[in-house]
Specification:
Blueprint: E1 4-7, E2 10-13, E3 18-24, E4 33-39, E5 46-54, E6 57-62, E7 70-75, E8 80-85, E9 94-101, E10 116-117, E11 121-126
Length: 127
């Protein structure tokens, strides 16, 4: 069983930055692909970014809407994944969820492929 706990959300003005963290329990963190999704009222959960790890390094996957704006990273020693969000816009507002998947097959953006989810952290960007 893996537990995920997000932190770092809050209220920020447009153009500002936030850094989200997701701490994971368990001893097999590095075996999981970690992702961030976001959701706003009335909309489906949306893929934002994911990061996998192997012996040869990390691979990252970004939604087109956040390329060049968000950066994902992971620290396997701390069992933590980070999401650095810069140049925030009001449309980035939402609840951000951390997720973990063990499977390496299937689309990286498919929420159904993720096995564990955090409780979410609210990000609000004011105009």
């Amino acid at each position: 069983q893996v537990q995920l706990v997000e932190s770092g959300g809050g209220l920020v003005q447009a153009g500002g930055s936030l850094r989200l963290s997701c701490a994971s329990s368990g001893r097999t963190f590095r075996s999981y692909t970690m992702g961030w999704f976001r959701q706003t009222p009335g909309k489906e959960r949306e893929f934002v970014v994911a990061i996998s790890w192997s012996g040869s390094g990390t691979n990252t996957y970004y939604a087109d809407s956040v390329k060049g704006q968000f950066t994902i990273s992971r620290d396997n020693a701390k069992n933590t994944v980070y999401l650095q969000m810069n140049s925030l816009k009001p449309e980035d507002t939402g609840v951000y969820y951390c997720a973990a998947r063990y499977s390496t097959t299937g689309p990286i953006h498919d929420a159904l492929r993720y096995d564990y989810w955090g409780q979410g952290t609210q990000v609000t960007v004011s105009s």
